[in-house]
Amino acid sequence: MKDFFAQVQENLSFVVVCALIVIGIIALAKLTEHFFLEKRQVTSARRVSIVGICAAIAAVLHIFDFPLPFMAPGFYKLDFSEIPVLLCGFYLGPTAAVATEAVKILLKLLMKSTTTAFVGDFANFVVGCALVLPATIWYHAHKSRHSALLGLIAGTVIMTVFGSLFNAVYLLPKFSQLYGLPLDQIIAMGSAIWSSIHDVSTFVLFCVAPLNLLKGVLVSVLTMLLYKKVARPLFGIHQ
Question: What is the CA radius of gyration of the chain?
Fold first, then answer.
């Protein structure tokens, strides 16, 4: 019974932390958009439909994630679901990007459930927002192809640094706790790939940071290549 209540407390604390961080991200997007950016004038129905379409595409891309066993343990996977999130954010703004990211995770959970005790899903949302928020904020502040590129570079750097620190400080210990996989065993999985790994810090340095950097670069390049081609049929712009 004591173990049961301890488990409930751990789960509740995770839910509370998730809720607070999600609220903080939404507030940051809304405040930035309200005070510093010019909001695109589209109807609420059109905004909802665009967010829904982009989130559905992102959820499908998220389902087809895949591990890179030569870089990180198998529970770390690469996906390209941030591409439609960025496309939506570049058109509608950072708030829409955050909403798309959130709906993407919900749809993915409905279709595939979770294999990481929800820690991986929460991580995908937060770390994804670390990429799309800086990129869309910077783009809407300047609105040019050059600013889109600079925003994506900034987002990639922020996602790499923040994602690594967040993994080290919170996500890895929480995943170990909720999933029931000892932290030493996780580090050993990293050591099997990189002999230089011997603790959480080196695990994050050699596994998490390169994976986030690779994802940021690939997603950024594909977004820059696809935006003009996708924007016309998806958003009805650049006519």
Answer: 18
> Which phi-psi region, left, alpha or beta, contains residue 21 (left: φ > 0; alpha: ψ -120 to 50)?
alpha
- Four-point Cα dihedral 165, 168, 173, 174, nearest 10: 20
Query: What's the distance, Cα to Cα, between the start and end of the chain in Å?
Result: 65
Distance CA 6, CA 15 (A): 14
**Which residue bears the tokens 């909720």?**
178
3-state SS class at 66: strand
CB 126 within 8 A of CB 115: no
pTM, two decimals, is: 0.92
Nearest to 27 by CA among 94, 84, 110, 77: 94
Low-confidence ranges of the chain (pLDDT < 50): 238-239
